[in-house]
Amino acid sequence: MRDLLELAVSATASGCVYGLIALAYLLMIRPTGIINFAVGEWAMVAAVGGHLLLSRYAWPYWLGMLAVLAFMLLVGWVTERIAVRPLVEKGAALLAPILALLGVLVITREIISVSFPPDPLPVPFPFGFGRLEFGLLAGSYQSFFIIALTVLVFAGVWLFFEKTLWGRSFEAVSLNRKAAALMGINLSRVTALSFAGGAGAAGLAGLLVSPNVSAHYLMGVPLAIQGFTALVIGGVGRVEGALLGGLLLAFAEQFTTRYVPIPSGYTQGVPLLLLMVFLLFRPTGLLKAKA
Amino acid sequence: MKSSLRWIAAFVLLAGLPFFLGSYYNDVYRKMLLWITLALSYNFLFGIGGQVAFSHFAFYGVGAYSIVIFLFQFHLPFPLAILLGIALCILVALAVAIPSTRLEGFYLALATLALAQLFVVVLNEGGAVTGGPGGLANYRLPEVFGVRIAGPWYTVVIVSLLLATFFVLLRLDRSWFGRACRAVRDNPEAAAAMGVDVARTKVIVFTLTSALAGIAGMVYAFVDNTVNPPIFGLENAFLILFMVIVGGSGRHTGAVIGAVLLFLLPFVLSPLVGHHHVLVFGLLVLAAILVAPKGLIGFYDAFRRS
Predict the structure, then answer these.
(1) Predicted structure pTM score
(2) Quick check: is A21 in a domain?
(3) What is the DSSP string of B118-154?
(4) B-contacting residues of A 116-155, CB under 8 Å?
(5) Is A287 part of a structural domain of the chain?
(6) Does any domain span residue A244?
């Protein structure tokens, strides 16, 4: 029982990380329809940024974290300016920006791989290494930190979409771009913000996961796969779906590793399997979009 | 008549060249031919069929590994090993394509990304069957009718593979099926209204081109006489996509140009940037999409029109 609950806490934590990546996809897909596979690389960039500021230059954690997140917002905004906006303005097919972003993915990864040594780069824990126990529930400081921060982010994003005028204009754009533009909503500003927000969410995921796994220039693609799978499971329609999908995927992965006697590497097959099952039987995801 | 003469001339030219090359340049030449073969079939999937997939190189790997495993681990006869290898490619392709192409959107891209990632894991964890991280080596092409093909003659086999692949794809492209593929790419709703079964067309294109990649992989298995996991990783899956984009997607000539250029570029670039030529590829692709969406072949077209 103890063992099971401990596993549940760590699965929840990694589910939160997947949920954040799924959120990053979702923020960009809703208003633009663009799937940006570079989110994994953005998480990687933030993790490397964490290594640089927190480990190499030993900044205080909160300051370093804010600096990295601010940098990620800038990265998202610049990416949109360079690789997305010119194509959208030209009226190119949806595939064009998706491919351009694949180019950005490779460029990002190569820049990091050129600039840093190929070994895993350590990133410090914000509260050191230790365990927290609430009765039967127990887990590392980092697990609880990840869960708390993710819940905060999701609550914030949910409130933004539901309660603010800005969030409403995002929704309007995702429902009907032309009508939204006619209503006076600035399309390019919404797109730029959605990319900045996506990079921020992906960057946060990278920062949160990096103390456990270390920053490495190849860490992006697995995260991109897991995050997108989480999105497919939860459904693109609603923000909560991203988190739910992430949790489901993480539980499936960790329980497979723990209880199914196969080499641990094969758990990388779990996202593919879940993806296939959901595409076949539940293509809209678990949560339906609101009408 | 004229066109068959052209095919024969191309064969004689391409197959004659290796007899004048040393063993190093023969090796470079063989790999270039294989890249062109892969780029041609990927172009049919991505450029003509409009499907983004990252599994093309994984299927190349499935072909290469399966022929080696069936021949030298299970000791099956040569023709049976080839057939089983192709069957395996088709089976995996169907398993991925049928769920992914049921829906609009880019689910195939993600599914194949996951498949390509998983394939390398399976190779590494496969123990004695796949040889683990070290892969399989120390095998030789079996004798066919008492003859073992080697040296430049094996290059002739690769040339035949390339031309056969090109021939099949060209015939398909010019048939109703090629037009159906382009219709599905450009406007699925309109294609469906014209009576094209969109999902089925997508599944067939994916399975067919994946099987072609698998066959190319079988030929590759006896080029280096070793197969190991790093060759079949995601890096090369991106590279093949980049070749088609830079050359000009949807055009056979474009795929050939892109494959030759991106294959030879590292040889030119390595004194300048070392092993970081992938960075240059990324920039090239971004530039191609932003500035020249028709690829290099687009410049040639513009030149001819003017």
Answers:
(1) 0.90
(2) yes
(3) HHHHHHHH-HHHHTGGG-EES--PPPBTTB---THHH
(4) none
(5) no
(6) yes
